[in-house]
């Protein structure tokens, strides 16, 4: 079937006070070609020039229809519903005003939908961090290209993909099941809409093509709802959206309902917990709200979650207020999870959270070596080496006998990891293992350049450990005293190489490299820009 014979798509673009970006979004939809019969742009009563920008575009592009709302709805659901109401094509696709559709997205989705007779078709999406253009795949590994799911209950893990924008919907399917978004100011409205879609039990087809680019602008004056987590209200909204979605799914299928509950424990809860911060008032409010919601979960749902998620739930339930070691809990919520020392034992000798909160860490002793939430500290050992210390974990690592450690540098912008040479680990007199791991920043910067990384390079730092029993693990590093200092190193290749180790939001070590004078100036400007954005957000 050639492009001219394909069924057509209505692309619904929603916009509010986004005059500077909405044109790019609309243009990316119009550029999809004849498969997009119409682009319906809904202006949610913007107070800037968004409406005028859309009207000017519509005057030049007959396929663009503009809907002007008289009153602002306060959310994303109502304008999307308005777009569905006026759509005329057999298929509907959603697009936000600050994102874009990559070339060929609509055609790839329609071809897959027609091939498999699927009312819902899903494609790949990326979160693109701007201005770095660092792409992070959305839910990697969840969808298999070419897969056809006859019933969502056959693949309950699909509840983890809550996006509505990386999917094509048959308009008759939406109408038959009266599927609409929550109206008004309902944050995370796509949770509820997606739950309704899955509850309707459609056949779902998967294309491996990239169909959506989600732009993430963390330093924007008005951040997106999903990034606006500076007060507990955002968490309350996410809980309410999850509660509603979970009820819809549980009514349709016990398997989907449980999967939704487990997803909250393994994904939503750790994501917000690791961003808990140090504000005591926020911590207390968050803690109270979270404990109250977790009390509504069945123990069977908690038991179905991954071990570190179960432990987090049980510590939260056991402590009425945030404990003194709450930072340990935020690190357990990191990816990969890390259980920081000290390590306490219960009356029977089994692992517990702490002497003050003797919550059983059930299943820890049975975990494979690679799944253990180990902690590895890092401190400076000269200008181009780090000294690491690997902590034992209730004798599990001692039984595996760690032998060597190897630095892994993973480009945050995507690409192949860079591995240093393995170094033998030596037992410490007081337990654990240590080693000095050298690396050559100039060689790392050159590899980054060869991979297409220009000016500022950013690398996540991890360490792989091999053990005598044949097992292995990879973990992140916890930066310790004096490691997070910027250094300017002489370089025969670049003249100067600026290195800046830093701590990520989850407490792990990462590294910025700025080769040459131009790179160093870019790093300094980038740091000043982040500092200014942080001040303006207070």
From TrEMBL:
One of its GO terms (molecular function) is hexosyltransferase activity. The lineage of its organism: Bacteria, Bacillati, Actinomycetota, Actinomycetes, Kitasatosporales. It comes from the Bacteria. SUPFAM superfamilies: Nucleotide-diphospho-sugar transferases. This is Glycosyltransferase family 2 protein. It comes from Streptomyces subrutilus. PANTHER family: GLYCOSYLTRANSFERASE (PTHR22916), UDP-GLCNAC:BETAGAL BETA-1,3-N-ACETYLGLUCOSAMINYLTRANSFERASE-LIKE PROTEIN 1 (PTHR22916:SF3). InterPro entries: Glyco_trans_2-like, Nucleotide-diphossugar_trans. The keyword RNA-binding does not apply. The keyword Transferase applies. Keywords: Transferase.
